[in-house]
Amino acid sequence: WEASVAALAQESLMAPHSVTFAECDLCKPLDDPANAGVLREVGGFDLVCFSYCLIENAIDLQRSGFVFIDQLLSKAKELSPHMAVLMLDSSWKLWADITAVAHRHHFVSCYPRHQISCKNVLLLGPEAVGEA
Fold first, then answer.
1. What is the torsional sign of CA 112, 114, 118, 121?
2. Three-state SS across 3-71?
3. For the segment 54-111, what is each residue's pLDDT rounded down to a tens digit?
4. 22 with 32: CB under 8 angstroms?
5. What is the CA radius of gyration of the chain?
6. Global pTM value
7. Within a 10 A sphere around the Cβ of 48, how many other Cβ atoms?
8. Which of 131, 61, 128, 45 is nearest to 96 (CA)?
């Protein structure tokens, strides 16, 4: 993925935006050393993408209480209040659990319908001002 993100960052369409790739362990807390790259950048995110990595970690994510996602959304509300999260996966089976985590941090969720992706896309975004 890192090479794909680096190529995307070189596209002139991205200017003046920046694109960053950071490795992480979704099953560990945000402040775990494995997640240092994400923690360092979290204040500058407009969009975070989880691309086909959730279902394969489903058991550990559930055991952890979705700690990484929970803490990422908490930090985002503080440092990057307009951040959106795009989740793409091979199944929708975690969407209800992740949506519950998101709602605790006043993120709203939607399931964009697309002829190819069907229910396998989840989009999270901050509530509009006054929409609590």
1. negative
2. HHHHHHHCCHHHCCCCCCCCCCCCCCCCCCHHHHHHHHHHHHCCEEEEECCCHHHHHHHHHCCCHHHHH
3. 999 999 999 999 999 999 999 988 888 888 888 988 888 999 999 999 999 999 888 7
4. no
5. 15
6. 0.80
7. 20
8. 61
